[in-house]
Amino acid sequence: xxxxxxxxxxxxxxxxxxxxxxxxxxxxxxxxxxxxxxxxxxxxxxxxxxxxxxxxxxxxxxxxxxxxxxxxxxxxxxxxxxxxxxxxxxxxxxxxxxxxxxxxxxxxxxxxxxxxxxxxxxxxxxxxxxxxxxxxxxxxxxxxxxxxxxxxxxxxxxxxxxxxxxxxxxxxxxxxxxxxxxxxxxxxxxxxxxxxxxxxxxxxxxxxxxxxxxxxxxxxxxxxxxxxxxxxxxxxxxxxxxxxxxxxxxxxxxxxxxxxxxxxxxxxxxxxxxxxxxxxxxxxxxxxxxxxxxxxxxxxxxxxxxxxxxxxxxxxxxxxxxxxxxxxxxxxxxxxxxxxxxxxxxxxxxxxxxxxxxxxxxxxxxxxxxxxxxxxxxxxxxxxxxxxxxxxxxxxxxx
Length: 399
Ligand code: TRP
Ligand code: SF4
Known about the structure:
- This protein is an alpha/beta fold.
- It is 59% helix and 7% strand.
- It is built from 17 helices and 5 strands.
- The protein has helices at 18-32, 43-50, 57-71, 88-99, 102-106, 109-117, 126-140, 154-171, 177-187, 190-206, 209-221, 227-238, 280-288, 309-317, 320-331, 337-363, 366-395, and strands spanning 2-10, 36-41, 79-82, 144-149, 249-252.
- The protein has a 5-stranded parallel beta sheet, with helices on both faces.
- The structure holds tryptophan (TRP) and iron/sulfur cluster (SF4).
- Iron/sulfur cluster (SF4) binds at residues 292-293, 296, 303, 305, 308, 310-311, 326, 330, 337, 340-341.
């Protein structure tokens, strides 16, 4: 297990918007300074839902990486890579698919949800059903301890844990693990061996957590067995052996506080976004057109900020005194909505203009972007190759 490693990925949906920036990228930027971070473009994942659509994947991948860099992901600190440049992901996905029960994939909530949501697409495909398993391969390849994701992805990390556990159970046993474990049990002495066996049985048959704890405690008290035997017997209670693919944990990103122009979550499919590349004029126009509290028909009608999407944006961008100015001006009908919106427009422009200067610089140097992707992918591949040789070795594919 790489205790200090974080891994996360994003599908190449093209240019990013403020929802991505406030909801994901700012979090990644903070993590990159604390962890050995791997951020990748999940380009194969795009085909799980868009296999029939003509999309310019190359442009989407490049533009997304440009946006990451411009937002502050540092390629000297974090490793940025592209999934398809590390084809080992496909091999691990294939090998994991052999032992993954169909029912585990069918019960991932996004499987049915997305099928209902994207009714115009035929998502009754093998690839779509298996996409959370591809994600498991993405994660397990790097033995990352933490996976920063939003709420919607937590179930996928849970699946990854189960997949890892099963893999370790099936292939992690050393040669003769069971025999060695059984021999160690007899060394415990008759009485202790008997309790160990009954606790192990209780745990294995019913998942009794108490029994697991008692059995582990029993092992700790043993004086007459070696350390190796103790470790073996500890794994033997759960039926596992060597841990080849450690179980990751999700690092839940707080729900993005970034509302869209209509107060719903900012998302391309709702058409309520401000792109990281929108010009100052576009930003101004979009915010000017935002709906406000419908009660404020005339300037003299008092309003309620809680009923206004502009207020949600003030909560993201404005300091305390500006927020007080909004509440006072709105509820007492002291100012109009146009005036109220101005500080939000100014803050967005101030946030995005320096980012856009960096975007322009990277955009002008596509070779540099390709080189960053190449170097990151090579680095990722180095780890992927190591993991795959352990996986192949455990499965006996070494000839
Ligand atoms: N499925 C994720 C999404 O749709 C993207 C993704 C693919 C991912 N592989 C991953 C995220 C591995 C975290 C870790 O957003
Ligand atoms: Fe919204 Fe501001 Fe208008 Fe109140 S004054 S309704 S908070 S835009």
